[in-house]
Amino acid sequence: MNFFDCVKAFWLESDDAVKAWRGETDLLIKPKVYRFIMNKKYLLIDDAQCYGVISFFHKPVRLLPSEFSETMVRHGLSNLDKINRWRSGNKTVFGYEFFFVEKFDKPVKITISSVVDDFVAIESIVTK
Questions:
Q1: Contacts of 38 (CB under 8 A, 6+ apart)
Q2: For the domain that residue 57 is a member of, what is the CATH number?
């Protein structure tokens, strides 16, 4: 696999990664703000597959609980998903508007050694 000069891999839950790859979402949600993401390329991965290379349009957008609901069609997560993942329905989360630099025709099977703060070092990814 060509890593397209990616700095790291951006990890998502499997359902979220598949929705992004299918073009069903254009906003990724994370509980933390990562300001360093602009103008860099990332592999989009879950625990078992790599879907392509993404980049981000803007700095992350802070989403208050009401804004989370208003943007549901863009990120595909319900309030119940939010509560189950981050243990609070009232928690502010951050939206990351992304685009595919290169979308793989079929996801590539991978193995990763560890996920740290939603990012994985390129060296930690092995293709199967």
A1: 56, 58, 59
A2: 2.30.130
The residue that leads in pLDDT, 14 or 7, is 14
**How many whole angstroms separate alpha carbon 2 and alpha carbon 27?**
25
User: For residue 122, which amino acid is it?
Assistant: I
What residues make up the domain containing 15?
A: 8-62+93-127
Q: List strand residue ranges (DSSP E) for 12-77, in order.
A: 27-30, 42-45, 49-56, 61-63
Q: pLDDT-derived band of residue 64, with 50, 70 and 90 as boundaries?
A: confident
- The per-residue DSSP string of 84-100 comes to HHHS-SS--EEEEEEEE
Residue 90 has pLDDT above 70, yes or no: no
pLDDT band of 49, cuts 50, 70, 90: very high
Looking at the structure of the chain, the number of domains it has is 1
